[in-house]
Specification:
The protein is an alpha+beta fold. 31% of the residues lie in helices and 14% in strands. It is built from 5 helices and 5 strands. The chain has helices spanning 14-31, 37-42, 60-69, 86-93, 95-100, and strands at 8-10, 47-49, 118-121, 138-143, 146-150. α3 (60-69) runs antiparallel to α4.
Length: 154
């Protein structure tokens, strides 16, 4: 895939939402091959995150949590060797998502010349306990440099 410049867009949030069903249907050994994020990235494949909403939550923070933990709703872990560190999990939903959608010249990172699109969260997703990412509160959303959402008391 890397040699052919094929990119993978995947849904890490399926671990918590559907992971127990995967384990039941495929068993632990075969389930270990699901969503091999670390192996794909190590092999040079660009991996981006998505949600497949409304099948599961659209929250990229839940997707980040699941890419880091690879834990089902019942608490089973699936192929922990394929887990991503927080910075790489964040990249799935920022730079990589912008690249595969062909908008990386405008969004995906905060750089001069790009749109000022960002969110302000109640915690640092790179240093917060991964378990807490699903409960992260968005305090503010800025699109094109304009505040489009601000939580009262933020």
């Amino acid at each position: 895939a890397a040699r052919l410049n094929i990119h993978v867009v995947s849904q890490p949030g399926f671990f918590s939402a559907l992971g127990d069903g995967y384990l039941e249907a495929f068993g632990p050994a075969r389930s270990a091959g699901l969503y091999p994020f670390a192996s794909l990235r190590d092999d040079g494949v660009l991996v981006a995150g998505s949600s497949d909403a409304p099948v599961i939550t659209a929250s990229p923070l839940v997707g980040m949590r699941d890419a880091i933990l690879r834990r089902t709703d019942a608490g089973a872990y699936v192929a922990r060797a394929e887990a991503l560190p927080p910075a790489e999990a964040l990249e799935l939903y920022t730079r990589s998502a912008a690249f595969v959608s062909r908008h990386d010249d405008q969004v995906g990172s905060l750089e001069v010349g790009k749109l000022a699109d960002f969110t302000v969260l109640d915690r640092d997703p790179l240093n917060a306990p991964p378990d807490s990412l699903g409960e992260t509160v968005v305090r503010m959303t800025v699109v094109g440099g304009a505040i489009v959402f601000e939580r009262p008391g933020a």
